[in-house]
Every structure is written in structure tokens, then in C-alpha cells.
Amino acid sequence: xxxxxxAHLDCASPYSYFALLHLRRIRPxxxxxxxxxxxxxxxxxxxxxxxxxxxxxxxxxxxxFSPYDMQRAIEHFGxxxxxxxxxxxMVSLLPQxxxxxxxxxxxxxxxxxxxxxxxxxxxxxxxDLAKPENMKAVLLDGPELDEKQVDEIIRLAxxxxxxAVLNENTRRCIKEYGAFGAPWLWVVNGQGKGEPVFxxxxxxxxxxxxxxxxxxxxxxxxxxxxxxxxxxLVSESARANAAKL
Length: 245
Known about the structure:
This protein is an alpha+beta fold.
């Protein structure tokens, strides 16, 4: 097995959004190594309750620091402006259950595209997706789903079967992979060894764990010589060109 990344995400976590963006961007390169990605919806509120963790906004020192860190991440990942909505921390049970339905019944591209949209509605538009009418609106905000499909997704999200899926995803993330927050990655290398990675800014560690070729962070000299890189993966074409040198 060349390798695999399990990414446990919740739309209540803005850093889960950054992780999802990055993973989708690097998937074509990871595929050249035979490494796959699975995006798994979890309930962050359940993780926090089980582990005693608290949202940054509830701790004064973290709350004061968060705007700086958020702005830096926005610039690094190249996203639209994001900020905490007035209902933050949000109750994400309904949207996360809907994502469990999408993951089970729709193509990966549809599931991930719609999932990505949730963060825009929560952290850019400040729409509370705990309300069914708002959840319906975000599911319809694109060409992927029609109204009949959306109504069925929301109906299924209220069933005990789908509730059990989200509960199990969350339980496994905590008990099997050691999660105390989100995004929570479980990275499995080619030898089948798995390790946890927390956050959206530890990609160099992920690349090393998977045995990938990549450019680490390098500073330019004061005279401008040397090349700056940002921990980015080396593409298949770049590796091929390097092999010819």
C-alpha cells in the first residue's frame, strides 16, 4: 500500500477548510505516488466534549491570538475573507450529517465540492447551517443537486442510520486515531504505519511521513540569491526533469 490520508473535518472548524483546500489541491501529485485521500465528516463538538478540549474563542488568550493566525492562513491558502460568525462556536450536527449522506450516496467530487461550500456560508456569509432552511439553501447553491435530491438528503440526515454514521466517524477519530480537535489527519505510509497529525499547517511532516519528495522552506540570502520554496510537493514532471540532470 503506497500510503493513505484520512482527513477528519468539521465545517465548524475554519482550519478544517484550509486542510480540505490543500488536500484537494495536492491530490493530483499524491496520486502519482499512489497515495489516496479520504475526507471524513466528524462532529467536532463531540470530540471536544469527549476530550475536554475547548474552542479557541472560549479562552481569552487564544481568542486574542486567533485573528492574527486566521489572517495568516487566509493569505497562505488564498481564500476569501473568513471570520467567526455571531453564532460561533456553531452546532454542526445537521450539516455534518448531510455530508455523511453525500459521502455515501454521491460521487467524491460532488461530496467534496459541496462540503467546501459550507465553510464559505458559515465563515464568509455568516449563515447558520444548523437551521434546515439554510442547509437546504447551501445545498442548492450550485449545479450539483436539485431540490428533490436536497430534500431527500435533509430527510436522511435526520434518520437514526445517518446519525449513527456521524457518531461512529467521531468515535473512531477519538478512540482509534487519538483526536482532540479538527482537522485531524491519520497518515498511513507505505509500510502501513499510521500517525496522527493535527492542524492545517504541518504538511512538511505529512510529506516526510509518506516518504515524498518535496521542497522544504528555504530563505533567500540578503543579496537575493537562492530560491524560496514553501514546503510544496515536487510534481511528477519536476521529478522527471530532475532525473535527467
